[in-house]
Amino acid sequence: MKKGIVIKSTGSWYQVRLSDGSIVNCRIIGKFRLDGMKLTNPVAVGDEVEIEIENEEEQSGTIKHILPRKNYVIRQSPRKKHDLHLLASNVDQAMIIMTIVQPNLKQGFIDRFLLMTEPYNIPTIVAFNKADLYSEGDLAVYQYLKEIYEKIGYTVLLLSALQREGIETLQEVLKDKITLVSGQSGVGKSTIINSLHPELELRTHELSDYSGKGQHTTTFYEMHQLNFGGAIIDTPGIKILAFNNLEPMDVAHNFREFFALSENCRFGGNCLHRNEPGCAVKAALETEEVSELRYSNYLTLLEEMEDQNYWERHKDL
Which of 27-41, 179-193, 198-212 has the least mean pLDDT? Predict the structure, then answer.
């Protein structure tokens, strides 16, 4: 048995890099489960695994064991609503790439992404790309969001991959860390990665003139080593983020500023911060200590969790 790290997942085959730097193409036999959850992809990029070489000449083998994960990032499968999909594991931090224009900002997506990283306290960077296209109004929107997210402890960056604005700062943030990089299609994720490490030459697409939406250029999950230290895990563009693995209280506990205030709520950690009496979050909303935008997104997510039929979310019970 040899140990290695999964650096690429195509869905049926996995590339595993061994300690000597060699790459082995592996498949899996049998079923791997994560805390009893049903997964569409039981092995993730970033997983440390034990493999058995089957063909030395072809450098192919089988993944036999997944070593314990220090963390993972998971979402509802976009194709099978009852299943879960692993984005990556064993990451030091995550980065969500957004734009204000081309495509237009979908601010709620930031809070959905944070709902994936917050349960494991994974430090998250919110990067706004295409700064070269921003009007004064767009920059004001960026500044408004920057203040909201920096106030609660997230790193916020302004980038222009085409003009290399902010790229040196981004390199410093990524250096010597394993970073999951994600975003909706069309935000310039591949362009940013190419500007960080030109030798990678990832494919990029223009936005569709008809829809103004991006086209997917990354179709699988892959870890790329960075020449200045560290690695990034590139993921396919995400259209929708949903969560069949969370309960309403999970949402309350993973909006970090709400959770910090909840100890002052009359019902403590059992408060959902809606209509409960003596709610510290509602009081902080009145004084603008809590962002109204974040709170609005929070209510939307709560409603989604409650609208999902309980038995649909607990299909395996």
Answer: 198-212
Predicted structure pTM score: 0.89
Extract the runs of DSSP E, i.e. beta strands, from 67-189. 72-76, 84-89, 93-99, 124-129, 155-158, 178-183
Q: What is the pLDDT of residues 126-160, one digit of tens each?
A: 999 999 999 999 999 999 999 999 999 999 999 99
Q: What is the CATH number of the domain that holds 37?
A: 2.40.50.140
309: containing domain: 248-313
* Percentage of the chain modeled with pLDDT above 70: 89
CA distance 226 to 176: 9
CA–CA separation, 141 and 131 (whole Å): 12
Quote the CA–CA distance of 236 and 182 in Å, as a whole number: 7
Taking the C-alpha atoms of residue 144 and residue 298, their distance in angstroms, rounded to an integer, is 18
Q: In whole numbers, what is the pLDDT of the chain averaged over residues?
A: 89
CA distance 229 to 301: 37
CA quadruple 186, 231, 28, 30: dihedral, nearest 10: -90
Distances (CA, A) of 238 to 175, 209, 213, 226: 25, 20, 12, 23
Distance of CA 203 to the CA centre of its chain: 21
Last residue of a domain, one of 17, 49, 66: 66
Structure tokens that stand for 266 in this block = 């009359």
Contact 28, 43 (CB under 8 A): yes
pLDDT tens profile 231-250: 999 998 887 788 888 899 99
How far, CA to CA in Å, does 264 sit from each of 118, 148, 259, 280?
21, 22, 10, 6
The answer to whether residue 97 is domain-embedded is yes
- State whether residue 219 is helix, strand or coil: coil
Q: How confident is the model at residue 220 (pLDDT cuts 50, 70, 90)?
A: confident
**Residue 243 falls inside a structural domain:** no
